Task: structure prediction
Amino acid sequence: MADNPWNFDVPTQMRQFAEQSIEQAKKAMDGFLSAAHKTAAALETQANTAQSGVKDVREKVMSFAEQNVANSFEFAQKLVRAKDVQELLLLQQEFLKSQMQAMQAQAKDLGTAAAKATADTTKRKS
Result:
């Protein structure tokens, strides 16, 4: 059996070195996988936070659009009931004033919601 070139003993030190190398590689891979899982979870949290913020802004925009359309129809109904040009001009002036105030409030509210969504997303990244 000593004449068989495929039959040899691996030196103990070489075997220990190989086992240590495999163990170190396994630990490194475990660390990599753990980091990958943490990163994926963080990205998912950020995406959910961002999606929630976008949803809030979208809902506000839709609500504002509905309010503005309702106000426009109400204004149109008042216009058709106006008795003269003077009342028509007064109604138009009141409508424009109220719409400008509403748009300012809506812009402020949207700005606040967008800032909050951004801050929430940024806070989750940290």
User: Anything to note?
Assistant: Residues 29 and 35 are 10 Å apart (CA to CA). The first helix runs from residue 12 to 80. The mean pLDDT is 82. The chain has one domain: 12-125.
